[in-house]
Design brief:
alpha+beta; two-stranded antiparallel ribbon
Length: 97
């Protein structure tokens, strides 16, 4: 998987869900099926934590798929933010502060 490409695409999606006052992601965002699957794969591969009791993968699996033919998922922005933060913190991707 191209982590850098994934990271850059997710940053573009998450930018509107970042609260600069508290420094955290909030709300929900819509991901395509491929974006959702990539997010789940990374969360599983690196066992990314959401909080002390849950993994990001567990939170993503609670996401709401669109009705009918699944073309997208509504996911937790904070959970996706955990994946992004992990990629930055572990220096898996190049980023600018």
């Amino acid at each position: 998987m191209d982590y850098q490409h994934y990271y850059e695409a997710m940053i573009e999606i998450l930018v509107d869900n970042f609260d600069t006052d508290i420094g955290e992601y909030n709300g929900q965002i819509e991901l395509s099926v491929d974006e959702y699957n990539d997010s789940c794969s990374i969360a599983k591969e690196f066992n990314v934590a959401y909080n002390p009791d849950h993994s990001v993968l567990e939170v993503l699996h609670q996401s709401t798929p669109e009705v009918g033919e699944i073309t997208s998922y509504i996911v937790s922005a904070p959970a996706l933010g955990c994946v992004i933060d992990y990629l930055e913190d572990e220096l898996i991707v190049d980023f600018e502060d």
